[in-house]
Amino acid sequence: MKKMTLLELNKNYSFHDSALETITYDKGKKTISMRIDFCTFEQPWFNENSPDVVPISLVFNGVKEYSGITGKFKCYSMLEEEMLGEKTIVFYVMDDMAENPSTEGFYEIQITADSVEFTVLDPTGKEYL
Fold first, then answer.
1. Residues with Cβ < 8 Å from 118, sequence gap 6 or more?
2. DSSP string of 12-37?
3. Is the pLDDT of residue 127 over 70?
4. Which of 10, 36, 14, 13 is nearest to 23 (CA)?
5. The pTM is what?
6. Pairwise CA distance, residues 32 & 58, whole Å
7. Which of 1, 18, 31, 107 has the fewest CB atoms within 10 Å, i.e. is most exposed?
8. Residue 106: which of 66, 71, 74, 79 has the closest Cα?
9. How much is the mean pLDDT over the chain?
10. CA distances from 114 to 34, 48, 50, 110 (A)
11. Of 126, 119, 104, which Cα lies nearest the Cα of 36?
């Protein structure tokens, strides 16, 4: 598990083409948990021995604001992400199963938080590294 700021997350990782599996928002604990099938081939450190996709968990701590979707998803692709200031990240996602993808199925997930924990998971969902 690597704990970092949202700026560090945005600087060090690209979520393009990764698959969003779940989002859970716990208002009481002020956390947002995301489960993602993370595309490693989009990363600058990718090499031919790396797997193309690994399951990861992102846990945002000290959540101040959240807008977007929650739940479990079958085919949601992450298109891109951007920072709005130092503590707000926006993920743009698309429902690949939308009947008319040119006009529906696009979502914006905006999170303002103090920090994020990035964890690589094994196939059973337990921390790998």
1. 1, 2, 3, 4, 9, 13, 56, 57, 58
2. H---TT-EEEEEEEETTTTEEEEEEE
3. yes
4. 36
5. 0.90
6. 8
7. 1
8. 79
9. 89
10. 16, 35, 31, 14
11. 119
